[in-house]
Amino acid sequence: MKAYLFALFFLAACSQYPADPKDTLKRATHGVLRVGYSENPPWTIATADGPEGIEADLIKAFAKKLNASIFWQQGTENILFQKLEKNELDIVIAGLTNKTPWKSKKIGLTRTYLKIEKEKHVMAVTQGENRFLIELEKHLYLYQSKQP
Amino acid sequence: MNVKFEYPQELADKFKRAKKIEWITLGVLVCSAFLMFLTMGQSQTMKTAWLEDVLSLTPPISFLISSKIFLKPATKDFPFGYHRIVSIAYLCSAVALFSVGSYLLIDSLIKLIEMEHPTIGTQFFFGHQIWLGYIMIGVLVVTNIPIVILGYKRVKLAKQLHEKNLYTGSQMSKADWMSAVAAIVGITGIGLGWWWSDAAAAAIISLDILHDGFKNLKQAVLDLMDQVPKNMENTETDPLLQKVKETLEKEPWIETSWFRIREEGHIYFGEAFVVPKSEVNLVANIQNTIKKVTALSWLIYDFTIFPVDTLPDVPENN
Q: Do A8 and B192 touch (CB under 8 A)?
């Protein structure tokens, strides 16, 4: 028990607490961020030069923060969420709200980063990578706090 | 038949206190269920803890309902009175405790098999980002401190009052705080990157709860089947029965006797078949012996004696 507590404080002090079971954040930093998107303007817009839109821009800024390059994958929500469940993607954006029917899948959702009337907008992430989720939520919060 | 209060004066006061404690318990559980409902978000762990909280409302509710009923005087339709409602309330509580254990075990095993990685995000307070895991641990600690204290008080009262329902309630409190500790360990483990820690801790704790639940469920059914009264832990026959036996054996007018006692809620009903040595003074002797037996304890509420020629077939000892 003592050793356990010690380990806990040690890790908390290193600010690596909570940690990622699959080291997603570590892998993405200076590496590759795997993002799935399904077209849903104005959140995600597919163009010849890749995805544009509010959420695509948010992800681009996040990747820049992590010094990561982005591997974009376009698809239907069905296909993207299957990949997210298998941890073949890190994030899925598609103008999702917290009422998305996919939330019963083995995935995680971010906190609401934008509220438009009663629609609470979220992004989907691979499940259980809590350190990665914290960094993403921090990024989304900064965007949220700049909104009027 | 005259109506008397089931408990002697001293215990009647304790019963009032038990009622008060159950009201407080009910209040605490409702508040903690509400707090958990607000913090649980997507967390399956917290959802389980919440469901448990809701289920653990059963013992106090069934206790408080039965306490309104069991004191009613016997009526034409219920000539034995309403005491057995207490045994029925006990059965309800035992079922609830057993369900909590089963649910927790099945739920955590499914999580382990499906390799579910719990996702716990963050919340912002005045610009500060706080991991929800910390908040969950905080809620679990805060809501379980009163549950531990109330549970401890209930065990003591339950034994004095011969209140099995109250006793089950206190075991439910134990189940509550133990699974809260499991959840705290589990969430801490999740933070360390051990996705399985939450489900594993819950599965281990659930075995203990299941054990308590099964023990009580079995006893509640056996009580309703008029099993010989047992002590609160259900490990041995109530020593009071031995005293009744001795009292009957000491009576000089009794040649031989056999008696049976069953539990109706808090109290005992019994009847003895006796072969008298002679029929002289029979009625007075019977009256006298009944008085002696019922004076042994407040638990023996109703005791009758039948004079017979020969004893009925006495059941074999197990």
A: yes
One-letter identity of residue B169? G
pLDDT (0 to 100) of residue B270: 94
Nearest 10 degrees: Cα torsion B213, B218, B222, B225: 100
Give the model's pLDDT for residue B1: 33
Distance from CA of B120 to the nearest CA of A (A): 6
Verify whether the Cβ–Cβ distance B122 to A111 is below 8 Å. yes
Q: Which of B117, B120, B129, B188 is the best substitution to test chain A (most A C-beta atoms within 10 A)?
A: B117
In angstroms and rounded to an integer, the radius of gyration of the C-alpha atoms of chain A is 16
pLDDT in tens, B73-113: 889 999 988 999 999 999 999 999 999 899 889 988 998 99
Q: Which of A53, A71, A73 is nearest to A63 (CA)?
A: A71
> Are the C-beta atoms of residues B206 and B109 closer than 8 Å to each other?
no
Of A7, A107, A134, the CB nearest to B131: A134
A115 touches chain B (CB under 8 A): no
Distances B311 to A110, B258, B292, B308 between C-alpha atoms, Å: 77, 7, 22, 7
Q: Which residue of A has its CA nearest to B198?
A: A128
DSSP letters of B194-252?
Answer: -TTHHHHHHHHHHHHHHHHHHHHHHHHHHHHTTPPPB-TTSSSB-THHHHHHHHHHH-T
Q: Count the residues in chain A.
A: 148
For helices B44-55 and B132-161, give the axis angle rounded to 10 degrees: 20
What percent of chain B is predicted at pLDDT more than 70? 96
